[in-house]
Amino acid sequence: MTSTDLDMRKLRYFVAVAEELNFGRAAARLHIAQPVLSRQIRSLERELGVKLLNRDTRGTTLTAAGSRLLEDARFLLTEVQALRQRLSRSEAPAIVVTVGVLPGLLATAAARAFEAVDPARRVVIVPVNWSEQAEVIRRGDAQVVYARSPFDLSGLATAPLLEEPRDVVLPADDPLAARRSVSLADLASRRLLQDPASVPEWYAVAGPALRRQAVQSSVSGVEQKLEMVAARAGFAVLPRSTVNSYRRPDLRVLPADDLAPSQVVLAWDGTVADAARDEFIAAALACAGQTIDPAAHA
């Protein structure tokens, strides 16, 4: 064998002939003229210093060296193609979509579907609370948010995902805790431990002092709300999946007879063009049924 470098193009030509065992079919597969292919194979044999093919009136067959080269050539060509793909990906800029997610909601399935299309894609998931779910979009901290109604929609585009019941969280020793469900009238004389805009139904029936107190001392984080409920400071209203993610023996969770379900939506800035964000939204809509863990409703 000479010291000439191996020509990948000639190697690809050889694989085509070795697989077809017919120069005419191999030339058609490679989209080149048959005489050109024959010259390239002879040139490869000279460079390697071995005979690769037996050619006679009965057809074309592989020599022992040709059989060995076919096995190795297939591997080499696959490796070269993989190398090209790796280099191409390393040069491609990362496509990042930042997604805000409220407690109890899941963006995992959508993120996997979005990233599976292209290795350069990446989803960054950031936790947000109810009071900031719209603001993270307006500030540009996230491109899309898994949001819950009610919230200020002004300037935002939305797409519905699903809805789920909202439950009332009370101290385990509250007199209402023995009931199977509660009503807004039952809660009108109790302090709400969150932004009253998240429970407008309660705000409509509560007295002025309690409404003012709720506005002034609302708590945003789920864990802090639950700590204050357990300390008998008031009650909270949360989506069922969120409640079930934070089960505690010192709390009692009851359905509310007259609370509308929580609407789960995707929200984004519709005035900003963003192709990657839009593709993530499409993936999220396709995965809407996996936005809430079924175990959270068990």
UniProtKB/TrEMBL annotation:
The keyword Transcription regulation applies. It comes from the Bacteria. The keyword Acetylation does not apply. InterPro entries: LysR_HTH_N, LysR_subst-bd, WH-like_DNA-bd_sf, WH_DNA-bd_sf. One of its GO terms (molecular function) is DNA-binding transcription factor activity. Keywords: Activator, DNA-binding, Transcription, Transcription regulation. Belongs to the LysR transcriptional regulatory family. This is Probable hydrogen peroxide-inducible genes activator. It comes from Mycobacterium asiaticum.
